[in-house]
Amino acid sequence: MTTINTELELFSLKGNVTGGKILLFDRLEHNNLNEEEIRELVVDKYEIMRPKHFIRSWKEYVKTKKFLCLDTADEK
Length: 76
Fold this sequence. Notes:
By secondary structure, the chain is mainly alpha-helical. It has one domain (7-70). It has four helices and no strands. It has helices at residues 7-14, 16-30, 35-45, 51-65. The mean pLDDT is 92.
């Protein structure tokens, strides 16, 4: 099984835009937010995505997150 260990690998596999969304969702989820809370932040509060865009991006994140092994402990 292939794993994605660094942000560089994520961006090279998924591209800048999709990789950035996946990274954002991953960081928010590691801050103990659930899908609904993340949707409220990115759609309602900060308005960086529209509702349908969030749904598509979230589905892509869910498909990809089982391959993510990003170490975020160093960054805190």
